[in-house]
Amino acid sequence: METLTIDKQQKTTDFLPLNGTDHVEFYVGNAKQAAFYYKTAFGFQDLAYAGPETGMRDRASYVLQQGKIRLVLTTPLHSDHPIAEHIKKHGDGVKILALSVDDAYDAFYQTTSRGAEPYQEPQTMTDEFGEVRTSGIKLYGETVHLFVERKNYTGAFLPHYEKMDSGYHPTPTGLVHIDHCVGNVGWHKMNEWVNFYEETMGFRNILTFDDKMISTEYSALMSKVMSNGNGFVKFPINEPAEGKKKSQIEEYLEFYEGEGVQHLALATNDIVNTVTTLQSRGIEFLTVPTTYYDELIDRVGHIDEDLEPLKKLGILVDRDDEGYLLQIFTKPVEDRPTLFFEIIQRKGAKSFGAGNFKALFEAIEREQELRGNL
Predict the structure, then answer these.
(1) Domain-by-domain residue ranges, the chain?
(2) Which CATH class is domain 175-371?
(3) For burial by CB atoms within 10 Å, which of 122, 130, 238, 358 has the most?
(4) Angle between helices 104-112 and 190-201 (to 10 degrees)
């Protein structure tokens, strides 16, 4: 089995309806500086802030937005805070994958009654703009899902956050929504978390890639893509596989010191313009040999885009039965080789670029070798 497409029909009632990703929260060493980075480099805009000035005494959080993407950057204000311990162990990274729901209390009941471990009991937060109800469950490593119900709220983000405008507004780069979010788990743990998503959250395994499909001469991994009932939320899950040398998943697990979020895939409607802008602002991308493009059209068929800009920027192309996609991956955005971003534009395709895996993984291995971690 190299690639398996699972029946896409939902066979039972969706007991956990999701409206999409509400926000992604990062724990970082310096949220003020991280916010400046994501604004300057990626074009995110100020949305809200919480900290000592708003009554939050133990941390500061900056909320940024571009399109439907909301990033929350949170830093602790004291060294003995649990968030500080998280950063000490993992470095900057994703802590919370927050999902938008119509009923956060029911989402907690539905998932915990099916075996999910509680992270946050249901609670209601209020201010002059209304109320937000939240609850949460634990995932792989120290990552969590937060369920957010905000249908009765008109504020900027959450109660006790204040609308923020620093006066600094770099031009957006065309990012519109989160396409998917990938998690790295330990040896032989992938199926455990596949079962978790199936049993406690009602997700389906829509694609499977084994180590024959995702491999190079030196390393390999296995991956399964989990999707919720309406397809709004997708979480691929990777685990290492045996190879001659250390895989990218093993490198991640070593430097993150545990399981966690490997990358966020951010969608754009014009990948050439988005990547051109990101590169001009200092974002570094993985590159593939120019020979990748020699037989590209023979492999994927007609595409609307001119080939030369794709070749110049290093954008990859792949096709499935429903169309094609264009994608490119940043180098890690921190000194630890852990978190990175994917920029993706879908032209009908529902897949994840399987035809690019070999070229992509060889590019990753070249970077691993430079770091001495292959």
Answers:
(1) 20-163, 175-371
(2) alpha beta
(3) 238
(4) 130
Give the rounded distance of the alpha carbon of 207 from its chain centre: 17
Over 60: is that where the pLDDT of 290 sits?
yes
In 3D, which of 160, 152, 68 has the Cα closest to residue 102? 152
The span from the CA of 265 to the CA of 64, in Å, is 17
Reported as a single tens digit per residue, the pLDDT across 252-279 is 999 999 999 999 999 999 999 999 999 9
CB 181 within 8 Å of CB 97: yes
Give residue 16's pLDDT. 96
Could you tell me if 269 and 176 are in contact, meaning their C-beta atoms sit under 8 angstroms apart?
Answer: yes
Handedness of CA 308, 269, 33, 96 (dihedral sign): negative
Report pLDDT for 234. Answer: 95
Predicted model pTM: 0.94
> Are the beta carbons of 26 and 74 closer than 8 angstroms?
yes
Token representation of residue 34: 């991280």
With a pLDDT cut of 90, the percent of the chain lying above it is 79
Cβ proximity of 292 and 360 under 8 Å: no
Radius of gyration of the chain (CA): 20
| Same fold: 20-163 with 175-371 | yes
**Lowest-pLDDT range, 39-53, 231-245, 293-307, 332-346?**
231-245
Strand partners, 44: none
Closest by CA to 363, choosing from 288, 290, 291, is: 288
Q: Which amino acid is at 140?
A: Y
Give residue 8's pLDDT band: very low, low, confident or very high (50, 70, 90). Answer: very low
Just give the CATH number of 20-163. Answer: 3.10.180.10
55's tokens: 């009554």
Reported as half-sphere exposure (CB side, CA atoms, 13 A), residue 107 has a value of 26
Phi and psi (nearest 5°) for 177?
-165, 170
Three-state DSSP state, 293: helix
Burial of 138 (0-12, 13-18, 19+ CB in 10 A): middle
**Structure tokens that stand for 307 in this block:** 């080939």
Q: What is the mean pLDDT of residues 73-93?
A: 98
Residue 361 pLDDT: 65
Handedness of CA 304, 179, 76, 161 (dihedral sign): positive
Give the pairing type, strands 340-347 and 323-329.
Answer: antiparallel
DSSP class of residue 142 equals T
